[in-house]
Every structure is written in C-alpha cells, then in structure tokens.
Amino acid sequence: MHVTEFVESVGVNIPRHVSANEFLSLAREGMIEKKHLRTYALSDFHSQEAQCAAYGLLISRYPQEVPVGFFSFAVQRVAVARRRLVAQLAPALDLSLDDLRKTPPPEPVRRFTEFVSWAALHAGPGEAALLVRTDVALWSHSCSVLVDFLSEAQYAPEAAVEYFGAHQESPGEIADGALEVIESGRSLGEPAEWIARSARRAEPVRRSWWRAVATGG
C-alpha cells in the first residue's frame, strides 16, 4: 500500500472533530469570554512544554536524516508559537509568565501531555510522525474555523485572533514530511498497526482537550 493510501486508511474524521469541538461551539454562539481564552492560553502553554520535550527526545532517539529533519521542524514550530503565546497572547489576557507556569492545567490537558510524552518514549519514528501530522491537521482546521468566529466576537483581543490565525494551515514540512518519515519507518520494519496506533488516539484525546478549555476542566 502506498504511504498516502496508508495514511488515509487511518481514517481520522477532521470535519466531525471540528463539528464536535465544544470551544468552537461557544465561539459559534458568540459566548467566548475572557475566562475561556485564559484557560486556552494556560492549556496551550503546558501542552507546548510537553510537545517541545517530546520532539526533542524523538530527535535524540531517531537521529537519522529524515526523522531528525521532521522533528526538528516540529519543535521549532512549537517554540515559535510558544514565544508568541508568552509575548503577545498572555499579556492581552492579563496573564503573566508566572501565572502560566504555576497554574495547573485541567485534567484532560494533563492527559494530553502524558499521551504526547508516552509517544515520545515508546513510538517508532513513523508512529510519532503520523501522530504529529494528525494532531497538526486537527489543530489547524479548528484554528481556521475559530478565527472566523473570534473576529466577530464581543470579547476577543486582536492578539487572540492573530494567534489562532497563525495556525490556520498545516505546513507542508509537517503534512508531506511525515509521509517521508512513515515510509522510512516502514522500510526499516516498523509495523503498520503500530504506525497508526497513536494517530487513532489523537482525535479523542484532542477533543477532550478542547472540551476542558471550553468548560474549565
């Protein structure tokens, strides 16, 4: 099976994920308040911390040219978003760096960070790359819809609109780069069922993440 056909066979339903996103439902109904965006910023901050550590570990576990290039781009992408969150989004929501660091995230967010950390420790390169690709696809589609709603919301600082706007598209380095890592993993004997394993868990884990942001826990 060609790698693109294999990825499609994993069957993550992005439109259904977007329609089930409770944070997007609040935005669609004009009910986003400052407290929701503060919870979002806190949750994303802690998630980014786990992602940076996870991708760094994957670089050390798989230093070959193809996976190291992919995971290096992934960690750089998260690091840029993290700087933007700390420097622009958080101040617009009256959150300091200490607030972000010291306030524990909601439990489903903590479970997301544990999921990412588990994958970094146990996944093969193809499995980890497909997880990153899937999560970024889910994320970018949600952000694309969210920007449209936030631009018309009663409470939505410009920094929030700009922050989500920066994540509306899945970069080719992720979407296409993951395919190269998957193909490399398969050529080295990484089992197909293992490559798909974490990607299939990504949607429910991320859906719970958004629900926690919408409800505060």
Distance between the termini: 41 Å
Q: Percent of residues in helical segments?
A: over 70%
What quaternary form is this? single chain
Strand pairing plus helix content: what structural class?
Answer: mainly alpha
Main sheet overview: none
Count of separate DSSP helical elements: 11
InterPro entries: Haem_Oase-like_multi-hlx
Would you kindly provide a brief summary of this structure?
The protein has about 220 residues and is mainly alpha-helical. Helix content is about 80%, strand content about 0%.
Fold topology:
Elements lengths: L2 H8 L3 H7 L1 H7 L5 H28 L3 H28 L4 H6 L4 H16 L2 H26 L7 H8 L6 H16 L4 H24 L2
Helix pairs in contact: 2-8, 3-11, 4-5, 4-7, 4-11, 5-8, 5-9, 5-10, 7-11, 8-9, 8-10, 8-11
Provide structural commentary.
There is one protein chain. The model has no long low-confidence stretch (mean pLDDT 94). The chain starts with a helix and ends with a helix. It is 80% helix and 0% strand. It is an all-alpha fold. The radius of gyration is 17 Å and the shape is globular.
Keywords for this entry:
217 residues, globular, mainly alpha, 80% helix
